């Protein structure tokens, strides 16, 4: 896996976490293990230098920085350059 592929995977994970507000639901949607999701969230936090999402009771709440970039991530992932050609 190259750096671009890993970055794309992290963005898909980020978008799914923002949408579901739940690590467990994101795990189910992406078919990833809890450990994989936790590691991805840690890499996102490190990459952005921000906690991104924090647990409040039983939900993951996006921090201000996460909300700022969520719309552009969603838009970018919908861009034809990220679509699979079949």
List the helices and strands and how they pair.
Blueprint: H1 3-20, H2 23-30, H3 34-48, E1 53-56, E2 59-62, H4 64-77
Explained architecture:
By secondary structure, this protein is mainly alpha-helical. It has a single domain (3-82), classed as Orthogonal Bundle (Arc Repressor Mutant, subunit A). The chain has helices at 3-20, 23-30, 34-48, 64-77, and strands at residues 53-56, 59-62. It has a two-stranded antiparallel ribbon with strand order 1-2. Helix 1 (3-20) packs across helix 2 (23-30), helix 1 packs across helix 3 (34-48) and helix 1 (3-20) crosses helix 4 (64-77). The longest helix has 18 residues, at 3-20. It is globular, with a radius of gyration of 13 Å. The two termini are 20 Å apart. The model has no long low-confidence stretch (mean pLDDT 84).
Trace the largest sheet across and list its strands. Answer: 1-2
Question: What name goes with the CATH superfamily?
Answer: Winged helix-like DNA-binding domain superfamily/Winged helix DNA-binding domain
List the total number of helices: 4
Report the helical percentage: 55-70%
- How many structurally independent domains? 1
The total count of strands amounts to 2
What's the overall average pLDDT, rounded? 84
Order of helices and strands: HHHEEH
What is the rounded Rg?
13 Å
**How is the main sheet built?**
2 strands, antiparallel
Strand content: 5-15%
- Would you identify the regions where 5 or more consecutive residues have pLDDT less than 50? none
Shape: globular
SSE-based structural type: mainly alpha
Keywords:
86 residues; Arc Repressor Mutant, subunit A; two-stranded antiparallel sheet; 4 helices
